[in-house]
């Protein structure tokens, strides 16, 4: 069954409850250098978990081989640890 939305509703967004508050919309995931310059960015619906998309975010940035990467604790998982080792 396909859920249908009225034309006035953005079907690509979703609700998220964070800190006891509900939010509706999108979330941006960034790759930046030490100076804060954005090297890559991925936009997802607000309910997307950070752990699930580290590879997609990293694919948006043209990163040189062998550079050290730092990530927010929310990206910590066995799969992401293996990805960062590569």
Tell me the strand percentage band: 25-35%
- Class by SSE composition: alpha+beta
For the largest beta-sheet, the strand count, sense and barrel status come to: 3 strands, antiparallel
How are the strands ordered across the major sheet? 1-2-3
User: What is the number of strand segments?
Assistant: 3
Number of domains: 1
What is the rounded Rg? 16 Å
Number of helices: 2
Average pLDDT reading:
81
- What gap, in angstroms, lies between the N and C termini? 40 Å
Q: What is the string of SSEs from the N terminus onward?
A: EEEHH
How would you describe the oligomerization state of the chains in this entry? Answer: single chain
- Judging from the principal axes of the Cα atoms, what is the shape? elongated
Low-confidence stretches: none
Helix content: 10-25%
Descriptors for this entry?
single chain, 86 residues, alpha+beta, 3 strands
Characterise the protein shown here.
The chain has one domain. The chain has a 3-stranded antiparallel sheet with strand order 1-2-3. The chain is built from 2 helices and 3 strands. It is elongated and about 50 Å long. The protein is of the alpha+beta class and 86 residues long.
């Amino acid at each position: 069954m396909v859920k249908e939305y009225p034309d006035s509703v953005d079907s690509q967004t979703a609700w998220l409850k964070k800190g006891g508050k509900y939010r509706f919309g999108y979330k941006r995931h960034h790759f930046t250098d030490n100076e804060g310059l954005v090297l890559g960015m991925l936009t997802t619906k607000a309910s997307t978990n950070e752990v699930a998309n580290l590879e997609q975010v990293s694919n948006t940035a043209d990163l040189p081989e062998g550079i050290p990467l730092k990530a927010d604790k929310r990206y910590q998982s066995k799969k992401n640890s293996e990805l960062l080792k590569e």
